[in-house]
## 1
Amino acid sequence: MSSDLLVCGLGPAGRALAHRALAHGLSVTVVDPNPDRRWSATYAAWADELPNWLPPTVIASSVDNPVAWTRRRIDLRRRYVVLDTPALQDSLDLPGARIISARVADIPRPSRNRPESARLLTGQVLTATRVVDARGIPRSPDRAEQTAYGVMVRRPDTETLFMDWRLDNGAAPDAPRSFLYVVPLPDGTTLFEETCLAGRPALDLTELRTRLHHRLRSRGIEFTDSDPVERVRFPVEGGTPGRRTFGAAGAFTHPATGYSVATALRTADAFVAGHSLWPPTARAVHALRRAGLRALLGLPPADLPGFFDAFFALPVASQRAYLSGRDDLRGTAAAMSALFAALPWRLRRDLAAATLGLG
Ligand SMILES: Cc1cc2nc3c(=O)[nH]c(=O)nc-3n(C[C@H](O)[C@H](O)[C@H](O)COP(=O)(O)OP(=O)(O)OC[C@H]3O[C@@H](n4cnc5c(N)ncnc54)[C@H](O)[C@@H]3O)c2cc1C
């Protein structure tokens, strides 16, 4: 039995795509080794990135003024939301979909004589008018990763910290840097997460745990060994842009934040409608973002707070263009140029060398 759409992988991206395809009246088959797996990650996004069709119940908390600490405190003035992960998953329901619990072995390239299909590990071949790979990105030592270690503490009166680069986590000033991320959760707890933004290899979780505990102690924040923890490790690069991939598998992950969930939610309708998500402008932005990742990976650790200080001093529209405008070539290029111009000479030189892969 062939469907209009076959979605391989039921993470946030695949489920969002299947859900929207069903909402638009398509027949949908989904394949995942564990389709009923409950998601446990804490997902967050900029409020202006989310699509209107998402019910308000999926927003766990929302803050108008998240804060970044670089060498100073900066109000970001852009609404940031923490999603209620179980509510998000439930809202992306799949009424009428054919759900197959299996692993996809490969998705052959279609040709004139071969329809779009996916072959399962069992050998079974599924066909559809359109087959989409939403299987995420496999880990590899060649890929930069984001890592984080978080603890959920009952202390709801803290401000939301998007990035706090202050050095009260016990790390040496010239050691690879990590920052603190703090967001309120729906159950009344607060997530404090020590995060390595991107590394190849990224900081390991034991080191991040040690740094987090040091930081919490130095700020007088009480925690216990029985507080729930969150462990984070995922690639921030990889995936293949194209009309047959979606989500992290489709290179949606922003290398400077690791975010891809809001992009998947926002672009699902256009993808279902058959629009290309990769016009030349989006491919050019993708190339610029990858250059940005090379710059981040190549900067001396002690320079990261200064880099983000300059970034968050840009107008909110420029920050938005760089962080969210996946096909806004003009805005992305303008934000990058303004950032470059705002940096001290020495950092510009380091950045140029890192971006070009020198040194
Ligand atoms: C703890 C944590 C917190 C995060 N926080 C954020 C955040 O705040 N905001 C944000 O945007 N991103 C966040 N991320 C990143 C986030 O994981 C990814 O952006 C997101 O999960 C990517 O979704 P995806 O559906 O593309 O891929 P995945 O979530 O990787 O889903 C892939 C799916 O494919 C299935 N699959 C794999 N192989 C096969 C196969 N062979 N056959 C069939 N199915 C297969 C898997 O079972 C899985 O269900 C976070 C990640 C973690 C781990």
## 2
Amino acid sequence: MLGDIVSVIDDHRVYTSMIKIGIAGVPLALKGKSTAEGVEYLARIGLDALEVQFVRQVSMKEETAVQVGHVAREAKIDLSVHAPYMINLASEDPQIIEDSKNRIRLSLDRGHALGARIVVFHSAYYTKKYTKDETYELVTDACAGLLDYMRDRGIERTQLGVELLGRQSQFGTVDELQRLHQELPDIRPVIDFAHLHARCNGCLHTVEDYARPLRALFSDHSHLHSHFSGIEFSKGNERRHLPVDLVQFRLLVSALKENACDATIICESPLLEQDAVKMKPFVE
Ligand SMILES: [Zn+2]
């Protein structure tokens, strides 16, 4: 009898969605404090995840990353990494492409030391020199090389994620990420829903609007890493992040549950953990 019950639970478990909530960077309440202290604080206020941000450069030493990783495992906080912003894998200048790859490689090394689930990066800008297809090829070639690097270094638990970006000048639409993920399945699409909303000039209004990119990119029920916040935009370009609109957030959560998506949602609102703790009850 017990066996029957367990197998029913197992059957259901395949298609339930587990949603974790976290923030990007150091909590507002701990301005100027260390990443390890941030991790412990997030656990105390009931959050699940932290995205370590390397804004300009990978400034964290390897030994610090190992130590933060220990603290995070103890505190049951999932870690991810955001690579530095100065990256363009489709630059007209080959040196910029090489420097960009180096920043991503270093972010991967630190992500590995942290035990992070994923390293997220902003991949590229379109240029006058290359068509959109050529831009796609340059990004794909660079990503294939980065996957080789990960294999050579034995980086297995930490994945590489290409973010959906919020400006018309940037590579990273749903279609481009879908194509890239189909060609290189180990490259993970990362949906920033605020970027998506800005890029499509405010197109996210219903559960179905949120479900469509999930079906395009996560039909295999693999774990979705994502960013969420309000957003100010004009003419399909993001202007700045705004506090979370809980009505919008509820639509996303419904779409995730209907599509049985496991997800980590990183709150990128200017109110960081203050908004994240308001989001948390919606996913429980
Ligand atoms: Zn980002």
## 3
Amino acid sequence: MSVLLRTSGLRKRFGELRAVDNVSLELHEGILTAIIGPNGAGKTTLINLLSGALTPDEGRIEFLGEEITHLPAHLRVRRGLVRSFQIMNIFPRLSVEENVLVPVLMRLRRDRHVWGPVSRCSDALAEVERVLQAVGLWEMRNHPAGALSHGDKRRLELGIAIASRPVLCLLDEPCSGTNPVERRGVLALVQKLAREGQTTFVIVEHDMDVVFSLAQRIVVMSRGQILADGTPSEIRDNADVRAIYLGEVQDS
Ligand SMILES: Nc1ncnc2c1ncn2[C@@H]1O[C@H](COP(=O)(O)OP(=O)(O)O)[C@@H](O)[C@H]1O
Ligand SMILES: [Mg+2]
């Protein structure tokens, strides 16, 4: 099982607050990993550090065997490390197709065509179709992204994330704001994409039923640290985890 990403001793403070506190973690190829934990546990901050949106105060991040601790986010994307956001991150006035075309063109290193006539790039269009078919939005390709339902916007975000054919894709609450039906659809989609095997996914998600049915590995964060790390059944039986979620032990 090869290690795609490795952190050691990662720390990020906001003033006195230790948002991420000495996190050492390995993410393995082909293993759908969920990161869970109470609000404020540091999940988004960790994703921000991994994706390059934030710089750690201490520690090191390696991706595919090379140090990327201080590499800017866009260069991480180029190496195959992408993320989606807890808050929606699409271009609402562009069509569904155009939203996916932008990262496809970037991958094809044809950046000069990004704003040119779309018909010039048949490779890119074939790739856009592949992505939109994969996320179930091909029929909606000409709609403005802003007009989609919330669930379909989330599908589009997934499409944007996978359009660059990443090695590792970090999804921060990809279902936030969706209703239960949409949520199941989006999560089934993540599972399908994960099984296709081109990309390894890490998902931050707070719905426990979903996490336990979806993930092959669960990392539990609490107060910036990793409290537990294991298979769903190991995590289900972990007394510390139950304590946080059931509120049996109050924070000291
Ligand atoms: N930019 C920031 N400035 C100050 N505090 C922040 C910032 N981002 C996050 N925090 C704080 O860091 C802690 C961890 O936040 P976050 O990583 O968003 O948690 P989670 O995603 O697990 O809910 C929280 O207490 C939050 O208020
Ligand atoms: Mg968060």
